[in-house]
Amino acid sequence: MKKRTDADEIRALIEGHGLGDAFGQEVAERMELRVYDDGEFVCKMGERTDGLYVLVLGKLKIYTLLPTGKSMLLRFGKAPSLIGDVEWTGQFPVKNNVEAVGECALLFASREVIMELQAERPAFLWFMIENLSYKLHTFGNAAAMNVLYPVENRFASYLLSLHELRDQQRAADEIRASTLTETAEMLGTSYRHLNRVIARFVGEGVLARRRGRLVILDEEKLRELAGGHSYA
């Protein structure tokens, strides 16, 4: 993780996401920009946060670890979104792992800064409420997906979530086949079963295998399979 404290850069990112009302100039001058590499953890289960993070570039994978040691995908985070708001408000330890997908940039404000400058700002409090509401919605949606829906539907939703959050630099909507073992675990299934689902999707013309990657060919069919659900 790399830290930067350029107030002009931070202010530009705040304004670029329409958060000028929520985070004023005085706050921007006391924030850090933290840049994470692909696969790097922003926070881990059981840790305690010392402030709030705002995702401004890239995307995050949020997942929990089950008592069996396996992981379960809860959602993907997209900019702009808060990380650590639940823990900060209730002073709880971190509930889920938050991991960078590709390079990510997050603004960080310490608890002291938030308490001193933000605690009574209506625009900031509304931003907190909106993020908490969105998290409740997406976590509930993911819980229903993980418990009630077959692997076919969960995988379709997973692919759509990646598609919707894809980096603008990437022209194709694809997933590396080398990550399928991790993907299967995240979706609560076996690598073998997921491969059978992929083979069926390829046979139906929904996906294609190209040089170790899966590429979406029929987005409409994928949305039909997802049934309106998404991990994003």
What does this structure look like?
By secondary structure, the chain is of the alpha+beta class. Helix content is 42%, strand content 27%. It has nine helices and ten strands. The protein has helices spanning 7-16, 25-28, 85-90, 111-118, 122-148, 151-164, 180-186, 191-203, 219-226; strands at residues 2-4, 32-36, 41-43, 51-65, 71-78, 81-83, 97-110, 174-176, 207-210, 213-216. Strands 1, 2, 3, 4, 5, 6 and 7 form a seven-stranded antiparallel sheet that branches. The chain has a three-stranded antiparallel sheet with strand order 8-10-9. Helix 6 (151-164) packs across helix 9 and helix 7 packs across helix 8. The longest helix has 27 residues, at 122-148. The radius of gyration is 19 Å and the shape is elongated. Mean pLDDT is 83; it is low at 167-174.
Structural class, by secondary structure, is alpha+beta
Mean pLDDT: 83
Shape descriptor reads: elongated
- What's the total helix number? 9
**Low-pLDDT runs:** 167-174
Major β-sheet, in short? 7 strands, antiparallel
Rg (CA only): 19 Å
Describe what is shown at a glance.
The protein has 232 residues and is α+β, with helices and mostly antiparallel strands. 42% of the residues lie in helices and 27% in strands.
